[in-house]
Amino acid sequence: xxxxxxxxxxxxxxxxxSAPRNFRIMLAKGGxxxxxxxxxxxxxxxxxxxDDGVKVAAIGAWRELDGAFLMKALMDxxxxxxxxxxLTVFHADSHDLVKLVLAHPNLGGDTISRFAxxxxxxxxxxxxxxxxxxxxxxxxxxxxxxxEALEPAIKARIASLLGVEIVDEAxxxxxxxxxxxxxxxxEATTSDATRSQDAAFDPEGLFEEFEEFKxxxxxxLPEDLPDELTKDNIEEGMVEGDSGNVxxxxxxxxxxxxxxxxxxxxxxxxxxxxxxxxRLVVIAxxxxxxxxxxxxxxxxxxxxxxxxxxxxxxxxxxxxxNYPIKLSLCQNPKTPLPKALRLLDTLxxxxxxxxxxxxxxxxxxxTTALRHVxxxxxx
Length: 379
What we know:
Elements: H1 9-15, H2 21-28, H3 36-46, H4 52-64, H5 67-74, H6 81-90, H7 95-102, H8 109-115, H9 121-128, H10 131-136, H11 138-141, H12 152-162, H13 169-188, H14 191-197, H15 203-210, H16 227-230, H17 236-240, H18 243-251, H19 255-264, H20 267-273, H21 279-287, H22 293-301, H23 307-314, H24 323-331, H25 337-344, H26 349-357, H27 363-378
Helix pairs in contact: 2-4, 3-4, 3-6, 7-9, 12-13, 13-25, 19-21, 21-23, 22-24, 24-25, 25-27, 26-27
């Protein structure tokens, strides 16, 4: 494993079993200032050290790493698959972190195999959406097709991706329904609109773009930022009373500072930064571990929001169970048409009636909503 994980030459020599024992223990305990990715690489190697003392020190260090440090490391698109696997072992209780690992483009076959038979819907959804990793390790991914915890439509998509023959009738039906829905959506829109609305969320691209800002947790925000932007226990009205000055202050921040504020700041900060002109800042808002469902619903309805943000919302199963968020997505003309069509059947009759008469949604959505209304009225 020592040779597999990329490390600077000096550090690689330090983790070799031939290096002095005390030096290896010092490395395990973080005695040298090295980057987050290298730190995880060191620990992944040292947990397999032949010396029990070094191994125990590395295991203890793994378990003591905090969430902010690990999230920063996960922004590295080149993180080794052995490191990712170790993270899911030593931080198995951190549900959000494991979800991020399962969405990482470098996820390896060993990790896929362990989670392909899991029964946690959120983790399975994150894994099932990681097409790059699944296609790199098709044998490890095949058990997903037989996993009863996955919806038939998702299993059908994975089976098509892996070229697996489907024997489950429900999965076959879901695959046919998915194909029919996509065909109807394609016919109902112009080629230009279809290309725009079907633009897929690209988590690999985002990892690469965030690479430049992977050290945001090390950045110190300006001391003159008001508490309303950094603390959640401040009433939002206090910000709005001086909104002009606060807005101007936020605009003076660098992109990296905005990303950190969007990730760790208050609801008021996220509200301001969700309108930022830089797409990475807006993506940091929607990816913030502190964002609340009501904020997501507002962003989902924003007609100026990017399609990447809308597509990211669809990757979160907990948000897809939230009715206001689903309604907002259906009301937003920028929502990819096939996804919006699938949500219509989950809406309440009164909202379907409103959509069927709305001039602010596509004709396809309005017509399909009307069909749902007529069908339910007959029942």
